Amino acid sequence: MAMNPPHSESPVLSVKDLCTVFSTRDGDIHAVNSVSFDLYAGEILGVVGESGSGKSVTMMSLLGLVPSPPANINGASVQFEGQDLLRATDRQLRQVRGGRIGFIFQDPMTSLNPVFTVGFQLSESLKRHLGMTRKEARSRSIELLELVGIPDAGRRISDFPHQFSGGMRQRVMIAMSLACDPSVLIADEPTTALDVTIQAQILELIRDLRHKLGMAIIWITHDLGVVAGIATRVLVMYAGQIVEHGRAEKLFANPSHPYTKALISTVPAVRGHRAKRLNSIEGQAPTLYAPPGFCPFSSRCANVFDRCRQEVPGRMQVSSGHDAACFLLEEQGHVATS
Predict the structure, then answer these.
(1) Cβ–Cβ < 8 Å for 192, 139
(2) Over the stretch 279-296, which tens digit does the pLDDT of each residue have?
(3) CA distance 48 to 43
(4) What residues contact 208, with CB distance under 8 A and at least 6 apart?
(5) How far apart are CA 134 and CA 131, in angstroms?
(6) Residues 141, 130: Cα–Cα separation, whole Å
């Protein structure tokens, strides 16, 4: 059962109007458009959407992990532990990355260096961020491998990445992200390439670590089933914008944006007639060569009307802790969020 975030307390991470634009030969790509959200200690925030919706770029932009140029990152602020990450120097960001904010990337085989042992790669982070000696770093590295469930950690620490299975490499990546006891962990589709049995083990591991260490987690995925099982709150992203946000149980019980409803309808049913044709979302996402001046989902929405093609909808309150950016809600009498 997910913990309730302590909304009476200050968030550990507060993002305001984050924008990321990529300059290309064909024009500027507005990949992230005025994204705002808060993250509280001890919660798991699920971020969902189709490929290309801006999930990964948003989170990598927070830490300066997208190359600049071609990327141009700006916004009101990204506050983390009293520091605005948008105004931080490269040196300050390097101290935050891997130190106070851990990041698990999608593919562990491309994220781990194949020519160095797992122990060496774990130790480097500990020596750089915590100033440990070589002996201390090795001992801590073994503890981390044991923490994430790798058997015979004292021996496996001398192995190279190719000597680990896909699930074990993902556990190594989790150990590396936890090395410096971060207060925030960002997991970018960490179970996508794994079979369902290993995926279930990784999810259970993340839940256990969240309870043991009390850290906040951002879980990026396109798998609604995973989000429903582990997330406290959910952000639904489309065309670089947050189109719906709410506590997981509220959002899945009452999806209010047409895009969220369409996403949920594409999940295969496990009951009923098994030969039923899978649903899909017709149409294509916008190219984003210009900042959206209208509802980005209007070209794919069955409920579109003239206003949708002329204005950008604001986020309307569906219920306490649940909002969506859709003109239909305004037509139904819902009020804008403050």
Answers:
(1) no
(2) 888 888 888 888 778 999
(3) 16
(4) none
(5) 9
(6) 13
